[in-house]
Amino acid sequence: ASWHPPWYSSYTAHYREAECMKEAMEELLYSYGTDIVFNGHVHAYERSNRVYNYELDPCGPVYIVVGDGGNREKMAIEHADEPGKCPEPLTTPGPFMGGFCAWNFTPSGKFCWDQQPDYSAMRESSFGHGIL
């Protein structure tokens, strides 16, 4: 599957911006056995482990964000789990993304993780491209 804004990204740039879409559609992709999802939007690379609802799940898809091609904006380099980098929850949604839907907080009850989330297998801030 593919669409533009990622559901699983640990970068501060566009952090949890598409949470409303995730809440509405993740069960559908999971129930039909989606194996892999490609996204862009965040100007960096991140690949997930198999994940469903922020928890590792052997039946969940792998999410790959390949938004690190050349752009006129800056690369995403800050992670939401770095000290002092977690955005305030109510600043994350844009009106065009459907409003605030980020009710899935971490197991510790926080909006951001304290370290790289288990779902995040690899992340890299660099300009590049993907080959499938």
From TrEMBL:
GO molecular function: acid phosphatase activity
Presence of the UniProt keyword Signal in the record: yes
Sorted UniProt keywords: Signal
Protein name: Purple acid phosphatase
Organism: Boechera holboellii (Holboell's rockcress)
Classification lineage: Eukaryota, Viridiplantae, Streptophyta, Embryophyta, Tracheophyta
